[in-house]
Each structure stands twice: as structure tokens, then as C-alpha cells.
Amino acid sequence: MSAVIPVSADWLTLREAADAGSRSHALVAQAGRMLRPPVTIHDLGSGTGSMPRWLAPLLPGPQTWVLHDWNDALLQHAASADLHDRDGASITVRTRPGELGALRGRDLDGASLVTASALLDVLSADEISAIVAACIDAGAPALFALSVTGQVLLDPVDPGDRLFAASFNDHQRRTVEGRRLLGPDAPAVAADLFRSAGWSVSVADSHWRLAGGDRALVSEWMHGWLAAAVAQRPALREWAAEYARQRAAQIAAGELRVIVEHIDFLAWPP
Prior knowledge:
40% of the residues lie in helices and 23% in strands. By secondary structure, it is of the alpha/beta class. The longest helix has 18 residues, at 215-232. The two termini are 35 Å apart. The model has no long low-confidence stretch (mean pLDDT 94).
């Protein structure tokens, strides 16, 4: 059983530029001051490798990245990238397929930093507890980026916005194969677990701010957002179809602006 919800490589590729433009550079700078070379970074839920592509050039080297994901095909894609640290030196990449819910401190041995992006909200409380416990056992700072907060702002405003957002958020908290996902509650749960262990936590906004130049991403995001809302509340299907037509016309005309709120947080030991 996978510990995360499967996502397509196409979706990960489509969102990569928005992700890169949204993550917190301030938290990266803070994390960077904690590192002493050589640097070993364990990235959880690596997918196609967007986190190392974005973060490696911002940190000192020499760097070794260990990429963790349940999907070995995505891991091999991620490992094929030619990556460099901030001084232009090549980095070493290793892959480690496996279920994140089974992560233990020994799996992060030697870590200088643990990272993840757009991961926490697709996990259950038990899975997040296991990840936090592994990070604490390893004693390495942890940088978790792009966790959704459940807040979405659209301009122009439509009467359906709040209803579809609420239904989507309920869908994010659904139960999948016996796993109750935390959805937008996840980052607060994870941060509180670190604080309860005596760790410090810094939080920063990392919102997507999408407009006319992001038509493909907005369109795909809108399709998935509404599909999840309707899956949660099928009675919304007819309204969602009309809403989708109106929003599609606005997207095509470059008139729709969307803010999808996320947060990043950095946790580090006492």
C-alpha cells in the first residue's frame, strides 16, 4: 500500500515552475546557515526531483542527495538530472524506494538536512508521526515546503468559490484504504509534533500566485480542484459544470487570478 496518493509525472512537471517561484528563500537561507560541508540531504516524496533541482543550487557543497519515494520509476527520472551546488560543482544522487510511513531514524543516518515538498497534506497522522519521529531521531533540521492551508482566493469572485473550496478540503481529509488523510491540517500537526519534542519551528508563506501567464497550470489545477469537490459531494456536479465553463472562459481570456495558499516550515533541534 502506498503511503502517498499517486500523482502523474505530467502534473509534477506542470507545477514545477510555480513551486519554484513560491518556496521560501528565507527558510533556505536559515537552513543553509546550519549546514557544515560535506552536506547530505534526504528528500522525502521526491517524485520527479523538483526539490533537489530547486534547492541544490542554493546550498553549499559538496552535496549528496538521497531521494526517497515509493515510486521507483519517478525516482529513476529524478536521479537522471545533472545537478550542481551553488558553486557549480556536481552533486551525488542516490535513490531509496520505500514507504514513507515505515521511515525510521536509521533511514536518515548521516543527514545534514531532511526536505520534502507538497507531501504532508497527502499523509495520515500516523505517517506524519513516523516521519517526524525519524527526523528527530536523526537530529537533522527538516525543511517541509508547499503544504496547502485549504485557503484559495479567486478573482473575479464567484458565489461557488467557498462551497467548492470547502468540499475540496473535505476530500483532502478523506479516508483512503484505511488511511485518514490530514489534508490542510497536516502542516500544523507536523509542526506541533516537532515543538512538542523541544524543536524550534519557523514558518513562511509560499503561496501560488497564478494569473494569465499560467493558463495551462490554472486550467489543470481548476479541473482537479473541481473533480475532487464533486467526488466528495456529488450533488455539486451540475453546479460545478456551469462553474467550470465560466472559469474556463476567464482562463482563456487571461482574466482569472488564483492564489492557492501554502506554507513552508523549517524545524531544527535544540
